[in-house]
Structure prediction request, 317 residues.
Amino acid sequence: MRILVTGGAGFIGSHLCERLVKEGHEVICLDNFFTGRRENIYHLLDDKRFELLRHDVIEPVLLEVDQIYNLACPASPIHYQYNPVKTVKTSVMGTINMLGLAKRVRARILQASTSEVYGDPEIHPQPEDYWGHVNPIGPRSCYDEGKRLAETLMMDYHRQNKVDTRIARIFNTYGPRMLEHDGRVVSNFITQALRGEELTLYGTGEQTRAFCYVDDLVEALLRLMNVGEGTDPAYDVHDPVNLGNPGEFTMRELADEVGRAAGVDIRVRHCPLPQDDPQQRKPDITRARDLLGWSPTVSLRDGLKRTVADFVERKRT
Ligand code: NAD
Ligand code: UDP
Prediction:
């Protein structure tokens, strides 16, 4: 198949491109390089099945493809808050453009949504039918509400125009190729631990997240994209599916795990908790288990070891 991956030079996108090329597909990686890096896809540039397109998803694009993974959007709070209006445009205009393309060429399209659609959740763990608890006017809203509207667009294009859609609600994902110090907790902690700096623990450190290793997530994205209608009569494949690792950790526990993976004694420095920071988050992955036969296989301890090794290697070269 010919497959378009928007945001393909980013952290998750580059792993996805690599996997799709490995499976023998022709891959077009579209990216504006806001947070993506050439280094993430250098190793694919010589492959005749891989093509790189510098383009911004807020502008329409004409291509002939069979499938579209729409991942373009900065994911770290410091990046998506850098230019919030642009973040909204990327999620809304970008998704409209990709849906328009999918409609024109009859491609199947998967939208990378997020656990942030649940906001600071009042239900724990979060199932897909929970509507969320999101501040519409806060500093995180450009990302959260942008993604919520992207989901709305996916459902409306499906109902109105019969576009073949899939929605992945991705929970915190980590692994090799995360940007150093990109503001997300795993990359911040690893970078700080390797530099012998104090780990910046926001708030009490008692807030929780559930972390999924990137290879597990890419496997789930492929399964969701390729699951056929009617596979499980209990589920509609066009409805959102939570993708994440249900193992839940406090940020204090994560700091200790990073120290263990990096082989250093860590020291923490408490910093103010950012506004609207969710107190707890953990996916209910019943739907992914039933519909996709998927559940994560990499433990936090193993995944952190692999991620630390990648950060060390990148520091050396
Ligand atoms: P990332 O920042 O590494 O990747 C995003 C990519 O999109 C980058 O390559 C960036 O340059 C590109 N991009 C941004 N705006 C663009 C635009 N207007 N036009 C074209 N390209 C653009 O982030 P990531 O962690 O790889 O996230 C990928 C997707 O997964 C995002 O949509 C994100 O919202 C979603 N997601 C990620 C996580 C996570 O924990 N990593 C969790 C939930 C959802
Ligand atoms: N966090 C932290 N120290 C950091 C960066 C983040 O304690 O250096 C906390 C942050 O307050 C949040 C959690 O770690 O409670 C996850 O933050 P991240 O930005 O990685 O993901 P998100 O909040 O979007 O789930």
